[in-house]
Write a structure and sequence with these properties.
Elements: H1 62-79, H2 90-93, H3 95-107, H4 115-134, H5 139-142, H6 149-162, H7 169-177, H8 179-182, H9 199-213, H10 220-240, H11 263-272, H12 279-293, H13 322-336, H14 339-355, H15 368-382, H16 386-398, H17 401-406, H18 420-431
This protein binds zinc ion.
The site of zinc ion has 6 residues, from loops.
Amino acid sequence: MSNQSVAPLPSLATLSIELRPALSSGGPRRFCSVSASVMENTRCFANRFSDYKGALLPGQGGEAAVPAVVATVDKILKKVPTDISDCDGGLYDGPAGVAYMLYHVSECPLFSEHREVYLKTAKQIIDVSVRYVDAEPDKNMRAAFLLGGAGIYAVAALIYKSLGLADFVKPLTKFRNLWEVCAPINFLECGSDELFVGRAGYLCAALVLKQKLGIEILSKDQIKSICQAIIESGKQYARRKRKPFPLMYSYYGTEYLGAAHGLSSVLQMLLSYQDMLSGAEKDLVWQSVDFLMNQEQNCNWPAELGAIIERENELVHWCHGAPGVAYLFAKAYLINKKPQYLDTCIRSGELVWQKGLLKKGPGICHGVAGSAYVFLLLYRLTGNSKYIYRAQRFAEFLFTEEFKAGSHSVTSVYSLFEGLSGTVCFLVDLLQPDQSEFPLFSVFV
Ligand SMILES: [Zn+2]
């Protein structure tokens, strides 16, 4: 996306890679498990870009970027499956994530001439996913945010509303009814509280809906009971495992810290609803936030509690590490303006600038776009244009031969979290940085 080269994103379908962890039997899938990639020696490309010197990059405005985004959307639409038998993966790596991307692009005024076609296509895609998840026999999977029904119903409601269809209340009602499923304290054996399938995810989806539809989604009592279940679950786990801090959780037996399945996104959701918490509950949450802040090891967090980070092999991903944990501290800073939370975010951004040109594809979960979203977050927190510049450099890198040749392929090249749909969301957000936010994971609400 420099002056010289506005090309479609590189083809990523030529190499094989282990990106997609094996299916877990007897419960929701586990994505981004740490062991899937510890054998790699070098996780990122060297960042050879010079840093910000007071000027943004020319040639990255709408004139250049809009055609590149449109071409990438066309490419995605050629790859996305449309059959009901291919709807697994939810928003994370199923077709539903493509529907969200189309919705997101259609909301940006720069793409107004494509709006109608994108929204209609989004409706076709999400309708198939809704039918698929309506037939899902496991009610717990219907309540899952990123991997199951809750996210699909939420995105269906957004798309229907944007199309002006009064029918948006149908998926919204299905979403609301899932509240009962995830209220019981141990509703999932593998761990009931994390973001992808657990209660934090359900709260996150409700937050997105409230933000974008402008209406209350759940009653105060419903929100309180979910928050209380998360807190009670964390207290019980921390007590049972004799942890020296107030709240802790595990997913499939691992005490994750990062955004994907870990403590940081659980705490982020509790902060997002802190008005619903009692004084004592708030204290527990803030103590846990500070506990997690103290787990930092040179601008990063280990994937699991207590692990020691090896510099050469560290995970700098949204799913595991600083690029995801940063959102918790951004939320904390936005609430109480304590400088240590902002400083923590800024340090995370420095690490991402050094090690965020990831080789695991273009996506937002563990790819270059996910790294670059940290810069957009920092821009919104600080107003410093340096961060737009850095995001521009990462966008530029996505279009280089070096990235094309050295990046691993991903299984679902169209997907929102691992593939190009998340990349498209990032490229669109780079055009409107004042409104940018990591897809479905806002702290500015
Ligand atoms: Zn990941």
